[in-house]
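FW: tagging you since you asked about this chain on Friday. Here's the raw sequence from the shared folder, copied in full. Didn't touch anything.
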Amino acid sequence: MAVSRVSIRVVAAIAAILFTIVLPAAQAQFLAPAPAPVSDGTSLDQGIAYVLMLVALVLTYLIHMGDASSSL
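HL: got it, structure written out here
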């Protein structure tokens, strides 16, 4: 009978220790979500550069089309 009382106390002590460790974790707050990615401007600059190159390509094509038709 003495062994069962000791084992019950040991189990109760282990359960108390586990509850003191686990219960505060259950009440913990979630981490804040990561902030949205912010553009540093390089992607915007690259987009503008591509548009300007496309405009220059179209203008070059149109100018040379006009030169080719006038020389015939």
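FW: The two ends are 117 Å apart (CA to CA).
HL: agreed, and Residues 2-28+42-70 form one domain.
FW: great, closing this out.
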